[in-house]
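Researcher: Re-running this chain for the archive, since the previous output was lost when a drive failed. Same request as before.
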Amino acid sequence: MTHIQRWFMILAMWVVIIFTIFAFYWVMLRPAGIRQMCAKRAKQVSAETKSGLANMLEINRAIYLDCLRCNGIDK
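Model: Regenerated structure tokens:
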């Protein structure tokens, strides 16, 4: 293997590693963080609402789903 081929293989390996890390973040970590943020926001808004339990649950679900939609996640 020549010197240029060796450097090309090293560069190709790094590109694959960086792409794999980015894909893992985008598919696994980012949605989990957004879901946690939306759950906190929905809990906070529904706790501030002075109404019955059924209304609080409906408000919580509506806020949560709207937050997910605004951040690019479908359920």
